[in-house]
């Protein structure tokens, strides 16, 4: 390579590094995929101690949860003494964590887990333990010294905005800065920063600048009403989720309270497909096989942990309601999204009775009419043949779910009526055979010989559901818009 070329290559790499940092400060290598593990809150609230934590780690292994991918063990609120020590540091509860946090995290990490802890952006945590307001650097250091690799940061006892004048963005920012500074100072991996921000001030619009996950809603409860409320709110903000930044739908309630088997499956599927972190939080000493079978469904977990596609499923049709209806009791019922292996579809029966659920392929952006798709049922673990144009799931239980993976399997079979290129339809209808109602339309229309199935004006052959090569870097993505500008085009071709 000529000298000038080398020079511009070096300059390019330098600029890439700087720009990538500016445009996406927190793509710092942690939290690329949603984290899977255990959190103590829903199962135990404040009733936690070191023996429990060790027992949880042991059972995560023996129950197969660790092997299924759940490799985090996270403490929630109530691990500390009520007051800081003389130096001003948070100290662990001297009775319940008498061996010391450092010792506890070492023992859990020795078994292969990562460990996470909890803190609060205000004066006190939600249960009244010391919060980190104006102690962010000090507390980040304590958590780091204890060995923790993730911090869930809550929103209780925050001073009024009229006093501190920094809004929610400003309340969470100092801890984000503290985590990054500490990692730089110590040359260690930054802690994952999980903002427990309850959806306040549209956290999904800005939290990716500070951390890797953000709570989009109020606390979850172990009943269908709560699950359905959370799904409804999240159905409108699915675009916020991608690699390194996740809408957090809250800790799982599988195994708890009033949720029945079908409701628990729906809960788990929605959380996984919306790319939420998945934290088990139920009593593992008596967890049922049914709950375990839900939590360890490898085909569902694989979508959550897709290494190629980081985006969430989104509704393409509301079903029970008109599209775009905000209804906590009847959220959107027909969802789809991309995955590395094809198009993911989630059907959610929000009604109190079983029903058949049908979708037309033209309704989803990731499916095409004129193609044939193989259908994989991710709960039955069966291949359910192929389908073209539409699919119906019969007898979806009340509050139940159907999770499908559709893979392109070539052009649709001959002879499906009405033909997509029926001349009467194409001259009359913009959408031809996909016009609503036309699928049940005129029979016996035989298209003229020259008009049969060789329409080349549409690119039928590009598979959909296949990610673009560069789904990951927002930096490259924004740069690509300017790639015809000379200087930036150099950068684009060097970096991307
Ligand atoms: C933790 O404490 C126990 C009991 O005091 C001790 O036996 C063990 O060696 C310690 N483990 C680590 C990793 O420090
Ligand atoms: C859903 O959003 C509405 C409107 O912002 C809010 O009032 C409600 O508390 C949210 N629900 C949950 C479960 O967070
Ligand atoms: C497990 O035991 C706890 C504590 O006794 C109890 O509250 C819970 O209902 C039990 N769960 C199951 C699934 O039996
Ligand atoms: C895609 O298929 C491969 C091979 O069967 C499998 O290992 C992987 O987990 C699948 N990925 C997703 C996201 O389903
Ligand atoms: C797929 O086939 C299995 C096995 O016959 C069946 O149990 C399941 O309900 C089918 N799934 C759908 C969505 O029709």
Automatic annotation (TrEMBL):
Keywords: Disulfide bond, Glycosidase, Hydrolase, Signal. Residues 449-462 have a biased composition (Basic and acidic residues). Residues 330-406 form the Alpha galactosidase C-terminal domain. Residues 437-470 are annotated as: Disordered. InterPro entries: Aldolase_TIM, GH, Glyco_hydro_27, Glyco_hydro_b, Melibiase_C. GO terms for molecular function: alpha-galactosidase activity. It holds the Pfam family Melibiase_2. SUPFAM superfamilies: (Trans)glycosidases, Glycosyl hydrolase domain. It is an enzyme of class 3 (hydrolase). This is Alpha-galactosidase. One of its GO terms (biological process) is carbohydrate metabolic process. It catalyses: Hydrolysis of terminal, non-reducing alpha-D-galactose residues in alpha-D-galactosides, including galactose oligosaccharides, galactomannans and galactolipids. It comes from the Eukaryota. Residues 1-25 form the signal peptide. Belongs to the glycosyl hydrolase 27 family. Its EC number is 3.2.1.22. Transmembrane segments: none annotated.
């Amino acid at each position: 390579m000529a000298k000038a070329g080398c020079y511009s290559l070096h300059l390019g790499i330098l600029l890439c590094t700087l720009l990538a940092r500016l445009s996406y400060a927190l793509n710092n290598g942690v939290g690329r995929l949603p984290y899977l593990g255990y959190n103590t809150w829903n199962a135990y609230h404040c009733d936690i101690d070191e023996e429990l934590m060790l027992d949880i780690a042991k059972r995560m292994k023996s129950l197969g949860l660790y092997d299924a991918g759940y490799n985090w063990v996270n403490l929630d609120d109530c691990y500390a003494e009520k007051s800081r020590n003389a130096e001003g540091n948070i100290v662990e509860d001297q009775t319940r964590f008498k061996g010391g946090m450092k010792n506890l995290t070492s023992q859990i990490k020795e078994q292969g887990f990562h460990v996470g802890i909890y803190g609060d952006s205000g004066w006190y945590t939600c249960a009244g333990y010391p919060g980190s307001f104006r102690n962010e650097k000090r507390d980040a250091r304590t958590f780091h010294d204890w060995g923790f690799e993730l911090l869930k940061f809550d929103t209780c006892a925050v001073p009024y905005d009229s006093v501190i004048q920094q809004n929610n963005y400003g309340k969470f920012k100092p801890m984000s800065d503290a985590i990054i500074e500490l990692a730089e100072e110590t040359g260690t991996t930054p802690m994952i920063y999980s903002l427990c921000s309850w959806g306040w001030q549209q956290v999904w619009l800005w939290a990716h600048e500070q951390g890797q996950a953000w709570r989009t809603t109020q606390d979850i409860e172990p009943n269908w009403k709560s699950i359905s409320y959370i799904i409804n709110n999240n159905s409108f903000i699915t675009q916020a989720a991608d690699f390194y930044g996740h809408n957090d739908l809250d800790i799982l309630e599988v195994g708890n309270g009033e949720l029945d088997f079908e409701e628990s499956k729906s809960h788990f599927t929605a959380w996984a497909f919306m790319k939420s972190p998945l934290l088990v939080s139920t009593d593992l000493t008596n967890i049922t096989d049914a709950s375990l079978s839900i939590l360890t469904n490898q085909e569902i977990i694989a979508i959550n942990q897709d290494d190629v596609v980081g985006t969430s499923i989104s509704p393409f049709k509301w079903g029970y309601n008109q599209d775009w209806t905000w209804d906590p009791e009847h959220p959107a019922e027909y969802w789809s999204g991309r995955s590395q292996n094809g198009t993911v579809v989630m059907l959610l029966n929000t009604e109190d009775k079983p029903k058949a659920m049908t979708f037309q392929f033209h309704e989803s952006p990731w499916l095409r009419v004129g193609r044939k798709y193989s259908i994989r049922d991710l709960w039955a673990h069966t291949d359910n043949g192929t389908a073209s144009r539409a699919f119906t799931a019969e007898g979806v239980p009340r509050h139940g779910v159907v999770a499908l993976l559709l893979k392109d399997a070539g052009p649709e079979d001959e002879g499906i009526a009405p033909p997509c290129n029926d001349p009467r339809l194409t001259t009359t209808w913009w959408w031809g055979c996909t016009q609503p109602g036309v699928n049940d339309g005129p029979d016996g229309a035989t298209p003229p010989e020259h008009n049969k199935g060789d329409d080349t004006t549409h690119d039928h052959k590009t598979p959909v559901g296949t990610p673009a090569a560069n789904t990951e870097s927002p930096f490259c993505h924004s740069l690509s818009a300017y790639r015809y500008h000379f200087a930036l085009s150099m950068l684009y071709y060097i970096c991307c």
